Amino acid sequence: MRRSRRLAVGLLAASLGCAAADTPAPTVSPARPFAVEGVFQTADRPPARDLSGIACKPAPEGAAQRLCLVVNDRDRFAQIATLTNGGITPGPAVVLLGARPSETVVGVAPQGMACSAGEAGFSDLDGEAVAYAEPYFYILGSHGCSRSREYRPSRFILARVRIDDQGRVVGKVGHEAASPVDALRLTETTYRLSEALRMVEPVGAQFGRDLEPNGLNLEGLAIVGGVLYAGLRAPSLDGYAYIVSTDVEPLFTPDTPFEPRVIPLALGRDAGIRDLAPLPDGRILVLAGPAQDQLEVHFALFALDLREGRFTRLATLDDPQGICTPGPRAISGKPEAVLPLGLDEDWLRVLILSDSLPNGAPCEYRVPRQ
């Protein structure tokens, strides 16, 4: 990208960030909880209380259900789920990581990390987000130091896997099927997103540092038109949160150059990105919340339109009746994953999963369309 084009992207991004600050938006409560027919698994004690990402394949024409993939932030696997109108049914696990890096992992684990507790072993993915872009589900590790301030190389992996409409993991040609627990040999993994994160400022300087006070940590993922958009929970710098974008295919190809870009968004002091999702109208949905655990920072939804140069605050999320996220905030669930359910002339319907609550306490919100 030429320097003038970089400058144009930066100016556009800054204008997007500033636009949201003056946009009025309603406070919305949950429209209804979704029934969970089954249990989301975890290596600890099921049901999982740390669901952090969800994405779904488009529903086949005339179908009443969608095949989805859900991830939590503790294990080495994701879990297939079936989404219906008002319900979600957990299915089999899909193993993403083994006890050590795959022999075919692209790139190398990042070096020179500043996690204050030092290096620990290869363990869980710390899966924070899921995205779907034909023909793959993409699963994002946090790419940050652990809560215990350790550097675990397994958390710096981006994985992708093909799953057919029957919930079977398949190979590149689409004919080689495996059971979900045997999916490991068909899962592609890469360390190269770490290279992209280190290349862009101001966030690159926070890479490999503790989440608190402000180390880099990823929680959102969307892939649109072959471009990966990674949403950063932290750092939050002078009221701005950040998206790092780059072409997705070079991340899974050794030695192929790429040129990442950074998009600053004016979410407000101590606010970061908790999830991203593409909308049917071409915009990117942004779920925002505290960069760490600041109780005074509200969870909110924004829409990012890169084509028109607009960044719009859609709604602040609230749950005063405790339908989905019982209070007080200090012990309640934290909105962690967002999935668009539908978009019409008046309303955007979204599903929210919350961390710290059994099975993610899925709940539908209806947000006025702007």
Count of distinct structural domains: 1
Tally the beta strands.
24
Q: Element order, helices and strands?
A: HEEEEEEEEEEEEEHEEEEEEEEEEE
| Largest sheet entry | 6 strands, antiparallel
CATH class: Mainly Beta
In the CATH hierarchy, the architecture is: 6 Propeller
What integer is the average pLDDT?
91
Instruction: Name the shape in a single word.
Output: globular
**CATH topology category name:** Neuraminidase
Helix content: under 10%
Which spans of ≥5 residues are poorly predicted at pLDDT below 50?
1-11
Molecular structure report:
The chain is mainly β and 370 residues long. The protein has a single domain (3-368), classed as 6 Propeller (Neuraminidase), CATH 2.120.10. 6% of the residues lie in helices and 40% in strands. It is built from two helices and 24 strands. The chain has helices at 3-19, 193-199, and strands spanning 27-28, 32-33, 35-36, 51-56, 66-72, 77-84, 87-95, 127-133, 136-141, 158-163, 169-170, 177-178, 188-190, 217-224, 227-237, 240-247, 261-266, 271-278, 284-290, 300-305, 310-317, 334-343, 347-355, 363-368. The strands form five sheets. Strands 8, 9, 10, 11, 12 and 13 form a six-stranded antiparallel sheet that branches. It has a five-stranded mixed sheet with strand order 1-21-20-19-18, with helices on one face. Strands 3-7-6-5-4 form a five-stranded mixed sheet, with no helix packed on it.
Spell out the key features of this protein.
370 residues; mainly beta; Neuraminidase; six-stranded antiparallel beta sheet; five-stranded mixed beta sheet; 2 helices; 24 strands; globular
